Write the structure tokens for this entry.
Amino acid sequence: MIPPEIIKKVRQIQIYTTRAVNASFAGQYESVFKGRGMQFDEVREYMPGDDIRSIDWNVTARTGKPYIKRFVEEREMTVIFAVDLSASGRFGTLDKTKNQLAAEFCAVLAFAAAKNNDKVGLLIFTDQVELYIPPKKGSRHILRLIRELLYFQTARRQTNIPLALDYLARVVRKRAVVFVVSDFIQTDFKKSLSLLNKRHDCIAVSVSDPAEAKLPNVGLIEFEDAESGQIVGIDTSSGAFRGRYESTAAGRLGELKKTLRSINVDYINISTGKPYIQDLIQFFHLRHRRY
């Protein structure tokens, strides 16, 4: 049985996302992601003026008459959320953790997809595939996905992004828009993401917390690595240490962006420290102009 607090949280997210996914937002979503491909409709006899490149040579050979393949714009889309729920996502210094932010972000896009009658699926992973829900339509299905993102108890603490991407490459046959949602602490995913992006439209969503980029001066504190359990003591009153920390964090973010650019994967950064709807709309605008 689902605890009442989880049901309450799902309803809160549903109310929030319903407000966020207004007509303007949904229209931007549709203009960016829909109508990207063509799907086979039928074969018919060749008529003067038809493009000879559309001739179906197999049917033509069987019938003795020239036939062409007819395609129509593909209106139905499939959206997959591949969400990293490893232990590092339980970190958060403000009013929500990175995992909670990831669930809310996915909910907004999932309701936008449902509004456009698209199919939505979910993959939850750590260093193994924890849960895969195949794409389906409907608001009840969307609510189930959100519930799983909030309530699912992962069996493992660490992360294996390539394993999750390779799994999707095997099970998702039809072209889809794949949002890979992670803090991307693991960095050896380039090959797997590049291969998946050749078949699907992949978008990397980096989830962060302000304290990961800049440490406050609060004296001596202990940090625990959420995935390894290792504990280290840190003196945050040291300006030199804080400077090195910020430089390392900025370098890691720069390397992530560089890697994604090199394989033509779009990037969105969301943080527990700021609203993300405007960043998402800006991403839509940039992508719309590019295509």
Summary: Strands lie at 38-45, 67-73, 78-84, 119-125, 129-136, 177-182, 201-208, 220-224, 231-235, 266-271.
